[in-house]
């Protein structure tokens, strides 16, 4: 965090601004940066205190490895994947194959 602060403060000089690509900051902007940084550290500490068991009610039905999805999220992902696979696998006569030859319909 101290190194980042030095990089930001380097923006107050012409050479430092050129090296790090930073611009001069006002005292209010620097204070806001430090405030956001400190707040994120506090949030991190609080988040680590939350027991993981609280989230079990959201994740106990998730079966990511099963062949047939049973929960809402997995079913939705499966349907969407199949939809886009079918949509993009269809070819028409103007599509090109891997050899850059046009697939022309053959008349019989």
Indicate the topology:
Layout lengths: L1 H8 L4 H7 L6 H23 L6 H4 L12 H18 L19
Provide a brief overview of the structure.
This protein is an all-alpha fold. 56% of the residues lie in helices and 0% in strands.
**Topology pattern, helix = H, strand = E:** HHHHH
Discrete helix count: 5
Spatial shape: elongated
User: Could you say how many structural domains there are in total?
Assistant: 2
Ranges where pLDDT stays below 50 over 5 or more residues in a row are: none
Please tally the β strands and state the result: 0
How large is the share of residues in beta strands? under 5%
Radius of gyration: 28 Å
Q: Which percent range fits the helix content?
A: 55-70%
The class by helix and strand makeup works out as: mainly alpha
| Largest sheet descriptor | none
* CA distance, first residue to last residue: 73 Å
Mean pLDDT: 78
List keywords for this structure.
single chain, 108 residues, mainly alpha, 2 domains, 56% helix
What report would you give on this structure?
There is one protein chain. With 108 residues, the chain is mainly alpha-helical. The chain folds into two domains: 2-50; 59-89, no CATH class. Helices cover 56% and strands 0% of the residues. The chain is built from five helices and no strands. It has helices at 2-9, 14-20, 27-49, 56-59, 72-89. The longest helix is centred in the middle third of the chain and has 23 residues, at 27-49. The model has no long low-confidence stretch (mean pLDDT 78).
